[in-house]
Amino acid sequence: xxxxxxxxxxxxxxxxxxxxxxxxxxxxxxxxxxxxxxxxxxxxxxxxxxxxxxxxxxxxxxxxxxxxxxxxxxxxxxxxxxxxxxxxxxxxxxxxxxxxxxxxxxxxxxxxxxxxxxxxxxxxxxxxxxxxxxxxxxxxxxxxxxxxxxxxxxxxxxxxxxxxxxxxxxxxxxxxxxxxxxxxxxxxxxxxxxxxxxxxxxxxxxxxxxxxxxxxxxxxxxxxxxxxxxxxxxxxxxxxxxxxxxxxxxxxxxxxxxxx
Length: 260
Known about the structure:
260 residues, alpha/beta, Rossmann fold, seven-stranded mixed sheet, 16% strand, globular, AB_hydrolase_fold, AB_hydrolase_1, AB_hydrolase_sf, hydrolase activity
């Protein structure tokens, strides 16, 4: 198993998947909170992110999903709660499609089920080439104002510092490989109606990348689902408003029967 990961607590297993261009520290507030309340929380660095290596030029979301199942098998987790944010949420949708029966409940945060426009798809390829050439620093500075809300930037310098550090430190080769693979992902929208496990859909009210309307579409398509909008948060409500996010997640896990 080549993925670096943290494994906290004991009880019902919860596997949390970070977004791009982040690492497993993105989930630290949730991992620590859930570990204290009777859950076992596994937070990996995806292939090519954090301290997980890659040799890929292009990493498909199916490859990320297979990696996560391999990690679950390594940890002897026959079934688990699975959550992901942004690209992590798309990997979650891929995993549920490719590996039915493994997941007991889902968290889909600030993510998008559909395909990119042709322009957005090309932008992923172009950005991959750019960061391979230039590195992550300028890219991180351009992304930062869109990742977190204006209110968060004004009131939570700790969050801004953490988000900037994750993005600047992301290995450029892994980030570029993921962008190329993500550009070629399938449309997950038709598969949402087949999801039959309890699902929590969360989105920040100020999310510029995946607005509330994207979350509402996912929630409408998945039968057993609940939508929570985190007011004042941008694309990373789990960091920007961690107490509200943790409350929503804990309430969901309790009500869904995914208890330790």
